């Protein structure tokens, strides 16, 4: 007697385990892409903030260079001192008929630091939206007709703290929440330039 032999065909298709492993690998890859997209958004915002800060820095440096009188330049330093910087947390000075060019420049810079150029209506009130996150501006008299102009703002992630010689906004950007990674000025960003005024 011959035993009947069955012809078995080679298996075709995928097993359930193979499909599950493939789905797992695909989902891990998509999660990695989503995380990278979030990080790219943060980097893009940091870059945009730095560009905005550089524009604001150049704006004040140009205003000071155009108004070269030594008493006027000292007035810039008085109006945007380290302990009373222009920008966030400050009411920008109102202009009057007797306002000087320095007063107008400081007000314009203060409003620009607060983002007054772009406003959003919230509950019938206009809220500034176009400025730096926590933007502050300082002018320091260094002597010998030199002035240090600095713009500081809140970064999104902690990095190395700026050098101690750039004191504008120092200690203002540390996280107040428990477990915040923004400590020791690691979220403070600054850009600065020196305005030199030659004797004419």
Description:
The protein has three helices and six strands. It is α+β, with helices and mostly antiparallel strands and 200 residues long. The model has no long low-confidence stretch (mean pLDDT 86). It has one domain. The chain is 38% helix and 18% strand. A hairpin with a 2-residue loop joins strand 4 and strand 5.
Mean pLDDT: 86
Unreliable segments of 5+ consecutive residues: none
Number of strands: 6
Given the C-alpha coordinates, what overall shape results?
A: elongated
Widest sheet, order of strands: 1-4-5-6
Would you list the SSEs in sequence order as H and E?
HHEHEEEEE
* Rg on CA atoms, Å: 29 Å
Question: What structural class should be given to the helix and strand makeup?
Answer: alpha+beta
Give helix % range.
Answer: 25-40%
How many alpha or pi helices?
3
The profile of the biggest β sheet is:
4 strands, antiparallel
Strand content: 15-25%
Domain tally: 1
Span from first to last CA? 122 Å
Topology:
Blueprint: H1 16-66, H2 70-79, E1 86-87, H3 101-114, E2 119-122, E3 125-128, E4 136-143, E5 146-154, E6 188-196
Helix pairs in contact: 1-3, 2-3
Summarize the structure.
With about 200 residues, the protein is an alpha+beta fold.
Question: Which properties best describe this structure?
Answer:
two-stranded antiparallel sheet, elongated, 6 strands, alpha+beta, 200 residues
């Amino acid at each position: 007697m011959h035993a009947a032999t069955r012809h078995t065909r080679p298996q075709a298709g995928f097993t359930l385990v193979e499909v599950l492993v493939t789905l797992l690998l695909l989902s891990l890859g998509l999660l990695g892409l989503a995380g990278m997209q979030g990080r790219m958004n943060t980097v893009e915002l940091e870059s945009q903030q730095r560009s905005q800060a550089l524009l604001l820095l150049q704006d004040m440096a140009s205003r000071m260079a155009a108004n070269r009188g030594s008493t006027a330049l000292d007035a810039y330093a008085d109006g945007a001192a380290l302990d009373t910087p222009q920008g966030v947390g400050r009411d920008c000075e109102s202009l009057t008929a007797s306002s000087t060019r320095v007063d107008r420049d400081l007000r314009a810079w203060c409003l620009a630091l607060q983002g007054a150029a772009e406003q959003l209506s919230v509950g019938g009130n206009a809220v500034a939206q176009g400025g730096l996150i926590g933007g502050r501006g300082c002018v320091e008299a260094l002597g010998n007709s030199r002035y240090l102009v600095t713009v500081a703002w809140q970064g999104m992630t902690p990095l190395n703290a700026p050098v101690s010689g750039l004191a504008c906004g120092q200690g203002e950007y540390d996280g107040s929440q428990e477990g915040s990674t923004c400590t020791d000025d690691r979220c403070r960003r600054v850009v600065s330039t020196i305005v030199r005024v030659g004797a004419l």
